Amino acid sequence: MKVLGKVFLYLGIFFIPVGIIYGFMTNFDEWAGFPALLVTGLMCFFLAFFLMFTEKKLGSQPMDNYTGEIAESAGEYGFYSPWSWWPFAIGVACMFVVLGAAIAWWVVLIAIPFAAAAVIGWVYEYSRGDHAH
């Protein structure tokens, strides 16, 4: 995580000045690239902070060892429901949200409740039914 944190920190340091230079070169008239570069740099700083902060709590990871083997990172990464359809429902709902943002805002207004229902279903799928705890 230490290496990834440094990579995102350097990317953030790169994107912010490039965004400002891009803004000056376009006289701040072009409103797609300038904010996109600044937000990309900001998100890189967020990721760098998160990875460096998490690395302090977890300590050294196998990915930080330059002479390490791939087998050192083997193990359990979490629990995933292989039978769950909720991630698919979230994906479909998010597809309609993005499609609505590109086509018409009324589609977004219709898709947001479906996305919220899919997220709620995914969060609470172990609270009821056959797999309730």
UniProtKB/TrEMBL annotation:
<dbReference type="GO" id="GO:0022900">
    <property type="term" value="P:electron transport chain"/>
</dbReference>
<dbReference type="GO" id="GO:0005886">
    <property type="term" value="C:plasma membrane"/>
</dbReference>
<comment type="function">
    <text>Part of cytochrome c oxidase, its function is unknown.</text>
</comment>
<dbReference type="Pfam" id="PF12270">
    <property type="entry name" value="Cyt_c_ox_IV"/>
</dbReference>
<feature type="transmembrane region" description="Helical">
    <location>
        <begin position="105"/>
        <end position="124"/>
    </location>
</feature>
<keyword id="KW-0472">Membrane</keyword>
<keyword id="KW-1003">Cell membrane</keyword>
<feature type="transmembrane region" description="Helical">
    <location>
        <begin position="83"/>
        <end position="99"/>
    </location>
</feature>
<dbReference type="InterPro" id="IPR021050">
    <property type="entry name" value="Cyt_c_oxidase_su4_actinobac"/>
</dbReference>
<dbReference type="GO" id="GO:0004129">
    <property type="term" value="F:cytochrome-c oxidase activity"/>
</dbReference>
<keyword id="KW-1278">Translocase</keyword>
<keyword id="KW-1133">Transmembrane helix</keyword>
<keyword id="KW-0812">Transmembrane</keyword>
<comment type="similarity">
    <text>Belongs to the cytochrome c oxidase bacterial subunit CtaF family.</text>
</comment>
<feature type="transmembrane region" description="Helical">
    <location>
        <begin position="31"/>
        <end position="53"/>
    </location>
</feature>
<feature type="transmembrane region" description="Helical">
    <location>
        <begin position="7"/>
        <end position="25"/>
    </location>
</feature>
<protein>
    <recommendedName>
        <fullName>Cytochrome c oxidase polypeptide 4</fullName>
        <ecNumber>7.1.1.9</ecNumber>
    </recommendedName>
</protein>
<comment type="subunit">
    <text>Associates with subunits I, II and III to form cytochrome c oxidase.</text>
</comment>
